[in-house]
Amino acid sequence: MTPVALTIAGSDSSGGAGIQADLKSFAALGVYGASAITALTAQNTTGVSGIHPVPASFVTAQIDAVFSDLEVGAVKIGMVAQADTIAVIADGLRRWAPRHVVLDPVMVATSGDRLLAAEAVDALKVLLFPLASLITPNLPEAAALLNEPVASSEADVERQGKRLLAMGCRAVLVKGGHGHGAESIDYLIDAEHSIALAAPRIATANTHGTGCSLSSAIAAGLAKGESMETSVRNAKAWITQAIAEADRFAVGHGHGPVHHFHKYY
């Protein structure tokens, strides 16, 4: 069977993040991508100027249309925007029971614009975390989800990861891209292990869509039958190269996109 992954997320009109980045990531890694759009955004590399949520009932219609026809191997969830959307996504996941769910708790865009309503954060934790195979917060998101300061040591990262794990997900990937030092270190934490995954920190302003693309790359690996650790390791290597090649692009005047198709051109 052709490996299929479904992204449930918002649309980025500039093409660098959201649904567009997810589909590019799936394609770059040899996976057929389907989508259910939760919100339209008017945005570019400098910021978000508008958000138009898709009615929750139509999010349901998209999810059901995909699952009723396609053999979905993994689901990636990104921008969910509002509480009623979160509720119908949770209902859809329980109804269709996909084997793998990668949840990227998108709260703030690279530009600093808020993408998740403050009142929806609790719904995200209560309704979606227990259905997730993996959640992928960056350091500020992990802190915000726990109402704590941003972790500044490996011990703090592991402690926050364990607290997030206790909310019901099967594994947590705390991403270190917002940290400091010569290496960007992500921590994959589950009930039994904590694995540090290091890569060189790359000096570039072109990081738009990095988080979306990494979580989608993990979902792509899971859809192809890889283990969680293998999927995370392969996705980390791929996104690191996509960031390293990002300056070959000249797109926009702000935080430009990563190079999803660096293997091909």
Note down, in words, how this protein is organized:
With 265 residues, the protein is of the alpha/beta class. The protein contains eight helices and nine strands. The protein has helices at residues 18-28, 56-67, 83-96, 121-128, 139-146, 154-165, 210-223, 228-244, and strands at residues 4-12, 32-44, 47-53, 74-77, 101-103, 134-135, 171-174, 183-190, 194-200. Strand 1, helix 1 (18-28) and strand 2 (32-44) form a beta-alpha-beta unit. The longest helix is centred in the last third of the chain and has 17 residues, at 228-244. The chain starts with a strand and ends in a 21-residue tail after the last helix. 52% of the residues are buried. The model has no long low-confidence stretch (mean pLDDT 93).
Features:
globular, three-stranded antiparallel β-sheet, alpha/beta, 265 residues, 36% helix, six-stranded mixed β-sheet
Question: Secondary-structure map with pairings?
Answer:
Layout: E1 4-12, H1 18-28, E2 32-44, E3 47-53, H2 56-67, E4 74-77, H3 83-96, E5 101-103, H4 121-128, E6 134-135, H5 139-146, H6 154-165, E7 171-174, E8 183-190, E9 194-200, H7 210-223, H8 228-244
Parallel strand pairs: 1-2, 1-4, 4-5, 5-6
Antiparallel strand pairs: 2-3, 7-8, 8-9
Helix pairs in contact: 1-7, 2-3, 3-4, 5-6, 7-8
